[in-house]
């Protein structure tokens, strides 16, 4: 069980503050909270945030950067919450501060995403939902792969190196809201969970490179310049990176239920 959360509580939660409280209870986290203001840097979302507040990158409650909601905000993806989400398209970039991940300890990356349209053909029909601690080839990466005019699938990659595992047989329609967890077991497999269900896992421990660099959400960093590529055409919300170990299946299921 998650500390401080009674059985069934997550399923009853729906508003952004409840989800944020649950998310923050799971461990030390790099947490991107949307449409808050500089005076409020707690880990709990504020459902009554000002319409033109700042989008804050928050590390354990300490604001580290801000973005203007006029350029990268959209309707939030949590039921019952008026928080804004990150709208990703064009040149929009959302990053979280550098963290150190290790294969031996394990880790987890999670976000809520709603891809509204197919990635452009110029992007090889691929979008990147999360690129963790990315600064070169081999970092953990989760991709959206266009399948048909109305559907997509997800694939786990080590960026620039090769595919770890993919969900070739599982597709979702554009416009779907997905609660995603990329979960790395200690010295073990890499798992992909969607809406509380484990979709696929690697056949063994994948070879990944960890750079202690910022993570990218809704896009990927490629090349020497901090330039975003392969943006998601849609929204990303409630991004979090757990550096001290993976989430349990119960915790992942509770997050999906609370969203």
UniProtKB/TrEMBL annotation:
InterPro entries named among the record's database cross-references: ConA-like_dom_sf
SUPFAM superfamilies: Concanavalin A-like lectins/glucanases
UniProt name for this protein: LamG domain-containing protein
Lineage summary: Bacteria, Pseudomonadati, Pseudomonadota, Gammaproteobacteria, Lysobacterales
């Amino acid at each position: 069980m998650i500390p401080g959360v009674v059985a069934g509580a997550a399923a009853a939660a729906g508003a952004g503050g409840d989800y944020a409280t649950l998310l923050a209870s799971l461990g030390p986290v790099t947490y991107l909270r949307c449409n808050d203001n500089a005076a409020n840097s707690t880990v709990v979302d504020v459902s009554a945030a000002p319409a033109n507040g700042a989008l804050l990158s928050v590390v354990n409650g300490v604001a580290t950067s801000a973005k203007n909601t006029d350029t990268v905000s959209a309707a939030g993806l949590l039921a019952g919450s008026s928080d804004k989400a990150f709208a990703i398209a064009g040149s929009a970039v959302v990053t979280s501060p550098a963290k150190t991940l290790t294969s031996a300890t394990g880790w987890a990356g999670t976000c809520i995403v709603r891809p509204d349209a197919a990635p452009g053909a110029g992007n090889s029909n691929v979008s990147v939902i999360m690129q963790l601690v990315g600064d070169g080839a081999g970092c953990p990466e989760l991709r959206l792969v266009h399948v048909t005019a109305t559907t997509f699938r997800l694939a786990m990659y080590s960026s620039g190196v090769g595919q770890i595992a993919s969900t070739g047989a599982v597709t979702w329609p554009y416009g779907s809201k997905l609660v995603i967890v990329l979960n790395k077991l200690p010295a073990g497999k890499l798992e992909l969970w969607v809406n509380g269900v484990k979709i696929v896992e690697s056949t063994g421990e994948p070879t990944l490179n960890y750079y202690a660099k910022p993570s990218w959400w809704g896009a990927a960093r490629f090349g020497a310049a901090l330039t975003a590529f392969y943006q998601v055409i849609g929204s990303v919300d409630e991004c979090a990176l757990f550096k001290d170990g993976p989430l349990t299946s119960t915790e992942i299921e509770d997050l999906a239920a609370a969203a």
